[in-house]
Write a structure and sequence with these properties.
This protein is mainly alpha-helical. It has helices at 4-142, 146-194, 214-220, 225-234, 254-270, 275-304, 311-319, 330-348, 352-361, 376-386, 391-399, and strands at 206-209, 237-239, 246-250, 324-325, 328-329. A three-stranded antiparallel sheet has the order 1-3-2, covered by helices on one side.
């Protein structure tokens, strides 16, 4: 049995030994773990290096392919430029050959012309000599001197001219008429050729597309109150039939019909269709249409070069944009006539500005012929007179259909 005084030293020694053994075990495990971590890091570094090398090689190959593509494209462009230069050089050579050929032809023609001139001069001298000899022989045969022969010839000519004066005047009058007709055709043709504008065809039917047939019922409203309110506010007829996806707006007044069409489109897009909303939308659309008409008239006057017009005249001209005559927009027709009359006046030495004004306003009566009595020439003349236009412009509107003849 171990004495008690030895137990503590032995326990201490045993504890120290145990600590040392544990420390050695822990240190060995740590060194082993360190070696494994270092080995794994070296392996990972090697993998990263290889990946970077592969990526670098791939990038290098990709860049090389791009450079090869750019070089090939550059070579193709250079080959195309060389071919174009070759063709251009061939064209220049052909042109030089043609020029040389034409120069030779010109030299030959000049030489032939000089020879003909010499021949003509010689022949003219010969003819002059023959005429001189004939005159001398005539004087010897008739026994008259040159002064007497001249007086006799002039008396004969006066007698012949006196007898033939009537026929000559009639002949010249006929020739003058033909010449005037030809010149008039040339002047008109030249003006038309200088200003050649395309005609625009417009339909006189206004239709409004609807998203579905249920919208027809909403347009009509309960017991027809919506459609009645719309027709009363716009002054048009709305036709809702079995045609799918469309509603027809009918009115003689083209401006009123266009206003109703735009208002109906707004109501359909808004979705709120009832009498109060209809009145609001129609009033708003009418204000927008009036502003649009004023803008159309102003732009047309500027395009035609006609200035200083009364505001009412500008509004009436803007309304013509919604009027069609013989499949042509009347406002575009008025602008074309303004240009043509201006060109005709320039060629004839007349006032081109006044001519353009007359041409631009000649059909203004069509903007109000359904509101006033009489044909559009008379209506247009009355409107122009009312708004202070000059007599020449009024006459152009009143007489452009031969309703007025000037003696």
């Amino acid at each position: 049995m171990i004495p008690s005084y030895l137990l503590f030293p032995l326990g201490f020694i045993f504890g120290m030994a145990l600590v040392y053994i544990l420390e050695r075990a822990i240190r060995g495990a740590a060194f082993k773990r360190r070696d494994e971590i270092i080995k794994q890091a070296e392996h990972d570094a090697d993998n990263v290096r290889r990946s970077q090398e592969l990526a670098g090689k791939e990038e290098l190959l990709k860049r090389r392919e791009e450079l090869d593509t750019e070089n090939e494209k550059t070579r193709d462009d250079l080959r195309d430029q060389e071919r174009r230069l070759e063709r251009r050089e061939a064209s220049v050579v052909e042109l030089q050959q043609d020029i040389a050929k034409k120069e030779r032809m010109v030299e030959n023609n000049q030489r032939k012309l000089a020879e003909k001139m010499e021949s003509l001069e010689a022949r003219d001298a010969e003819i002059q000599q023959l005429l001189k000899d004939q005159r001398e022989q005539l004087f010897k045969i008739s026994g008259l001197d040159q002064s007497s022969a001249t007086d006799m010839l002039l008396n004969k000519l006066r007698s012949d001219l006196k007898n033939e004066t009537g026929g000559i005047i009639l002949k010249h009058q006929s020739e003058l008429k033909v010449t005037c007709d030809k010149m008039a055709r040339e002047v008109i043709g030249m003006a038309v050729q200088r200003y050649a504008a395309a005609h625009t065809s417009e339909t006189t039917v206004s239709s409004v597309d609807i998203p579905n047939d249920e919208m027809k019922g909403r347009i009509i409203g309960r017991e027809g109150r919506n459609i009645r309110a719309f027709e009363k506010a716009t002054g048009v007829d709305v036709i809702v039939d079995d045609t799918p996806g469309v509603v027809i707006v009918s009115a003689f007044d083209t401006v009123r019909r266009e206003t109703a069409k735009l208002a109906l489109i707004k109501l359909i897009q808004d979705g709120r269709i009832h009498p109060t909303r209809i009145e609001e939308v129609v009033a708003e659309t009418q204000r927008e249409m009036e502003a649009h008409i004023r803008q159309l008239g102003t732009e047309a006057a500027e395009e035609a070069g006609v200035h200083g017009l009364h505001e009412k005249i500008i509004d009436l001209m803007g309304r013509l944009s919604f009027r069609v005559s013989y499949s042509q927009n009347v406002l575009r027709h008025s602008i074309e006539v303004a240009f043509l009359t201006g060109m005709l006046a320039e060629q004839l030495g007349l006032d081109s500005k006044m001519a353009r004004r007359c041409g631009f306003l000649h059909d203004i009566g069509k903007a109000a012929d359904h509101e006033m009595e009489g044909g559009h020439p008379a209506v247009g003349a009355e409107l122009l007179k009312r708004y202070g236009e000059r007599p020449e412009v009024i006459h152009a509107a009143a007489g452009h259909h031969d309703d007025i003849r000037v003696d």
